[in-house]
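Students often ask why inverse folding is considered easier than folding. One informal answer: many sequences map to the same fold, so there is more than one right answer. In these notes we will look at a single instance of the problem. The structure comes first.
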C-alpha cells in the first residue's frame, strides 16, 4: 500500500517515559496473521565512520564485496519476507540506487561475457521487492519504525537493524517468526553481553526457567550497570505486533530525547501483551563499530570458498610476524 506523508505523521507524544521495568500479566495467544514484511531503518548518519560516510551511507560500506545492507535484505528474503521497506533519511539516495537496476552496467557486462559479475549485480536488485520512505526528522528508532505503519497494515512484521549481520547458517529470524506464530505478540532477539556491558543496550527482565525462548517481564533502555534487570541485551532483530504503532504514537521521547522502541515494548508488557525473547548464541557480526567492522570483514572473508584459502594463508603469515603485545619494534 502507498505510504503518504499523512500516514507517516506521528500524533503528539504523551504518556509513558523511559526506564520502566514492568510485569507480564496475560497469557500469550497464537498469532493467526502471517508475517510477510520487513522494515529496515537506514536513516542514521554513521558518524562513527566519518569521513567515509560524508559521501557513502554507512549501510553501503562493503563487508568483503557486498554492502552490509545487502546481507540484511538477503536474511529477510531467506525468511520468506519478500517485501522490504527501508526507512531512509537525507543523503541516502545511494541506497535506492543500489537496489535499482543499472541497464548500462548490465549491458556492458553482457558484452564482456562476465557472467559471474552480472549474476552478482542481478542478485542485489532481485533479492526482494524493496520500498522506501523518508523519516524526515531523526527522532529515534521508535519514530523510524512508526513510519512503516501504512506499509505494514494490520499484521505482524519484522524489524532488522543494519548494524547487525547474522550469519546465514544461523536461522535466528526464522526462529523468531516461529515463536511469534506460536505465541502471538512481539518477539525480540537477545544476547548475553555480560553485566559490565549492559549499559550500552536495551536490557530485559525475564521469567525464570526459560532457555533459548523466554517470556519478557520488563524492558529498560541502557540502564546503569547496577540497575540492569539482567545481562540479556536486545540486539537488532524484532518481530512486532502491529499494536506497537498505536503505542509508539503515544510514547514520549525517552533516553537521548528520542522515541525509544524499547519504551513502547515496555508499555505493551505493562498492558499484558505477550513479548518473548529468543536468546541467540550464534554468529553475529557488528558492523556499526569500527573495530568490530574490521573483525567482520576478516571473519567473513576467511570463510569464503573463493577468497578463504589464499586469505587465510596470508593472514597466518601476517599474524606470525606481528610483534608480541606490548613489545616495541626494533
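Output (designed amino acids):
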Amino acid at each position: 500500500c502507498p505510504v503518504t506523508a499523512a500516514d507517516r505523521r506521528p500524533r503528539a507524544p504523551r504518556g509513558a517515559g523511559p526506564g520502566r521495568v514492568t510485569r507480564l500479566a496475560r497469557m500469550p495467544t497464537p498469532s493467526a496473521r502471517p508475517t510477510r514484511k520487513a522494515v529496515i531503518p537506514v536513516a542514521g548518519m554513521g558518524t562513527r565512520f566519518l569521513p567515509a560516510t560524508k559521501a557513502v551511507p554507512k549501510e553501503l560500506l562493503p563487508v568483503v564485496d557486498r554492502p552490509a545492507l545487502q546481507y540484511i535484505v538477503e536474511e529477510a528474503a531467506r525468511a520468506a519476507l519478500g517485501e522490504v521497506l527501508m526507512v531512509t533519511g537525507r543523503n541516502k539516495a545511494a541506497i535506492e540506487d543500489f537496489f535499482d537496476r543499472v541497464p548500462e552496467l548490465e549491458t556492458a557486462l553482457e558484452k564482456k561475457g562476465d557472467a559471474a559479475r552480472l549474476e552478482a549485480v542481478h542478485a542485489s536488485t532481485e533479492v526482494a521487492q524493496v520500498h522506501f520512505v523518508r523519516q524526515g526528522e531523526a527522532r529515534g528508532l521508535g519514530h523510524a519504525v512508526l513510519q512503516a505503519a501504512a506499509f505494514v497494515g494490520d499484521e505482524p512484521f519484522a524489524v532488522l537493524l543494519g548494524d547487525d549481520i547474522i550469519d546465514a547458517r544461523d536461522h535466528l529470524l526464522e526462529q523468531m517468526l516461529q515463536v511469534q506464530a506460536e505465541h502471538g505478540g512481539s518477539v525480540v532477539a537477545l544476547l548475553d553481553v555480560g553485566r559490565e556491558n549492559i549499559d550500552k543496550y536495551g536490557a530485559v527482565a525475564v521469567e525464570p526457567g526459560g532457555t533459548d525462548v523466554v517470556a519478557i517481564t520488563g524492558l529498560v533502555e541502557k540502564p546503569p550497570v547496577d540497575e540492569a534487570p539482567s545481562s540479556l541485551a536486545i540486539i537488532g532483530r524484532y518481530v512486532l505486533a502491529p499494536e506497537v504503532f498505536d503505542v509508539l504514537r503515544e510514547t514520549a521521547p525517552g533516553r537521548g530525547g528520542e522515541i525509544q522502541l524499547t519504551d513502547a515494548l515496555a508499555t505493551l508488557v505493562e498492558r499484558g501483551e505477550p513479548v518473548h525473547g529468543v536468546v541467540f548464541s550464534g554468529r553475529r557480526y557488528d558492523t556499526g563499530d569500527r573495530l568490530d567492522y574490521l573483525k567482520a570483514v576478516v571473519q567473513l572473508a576467511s570463510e569464503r570458498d573463493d577468497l578463504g584459502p589464499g586469505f587465510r594463508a596470508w593472514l597466518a603469515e601476517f599474524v606470525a610476524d606481528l610483534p608480541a603485545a606490548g613489545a616495541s619494534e626494533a
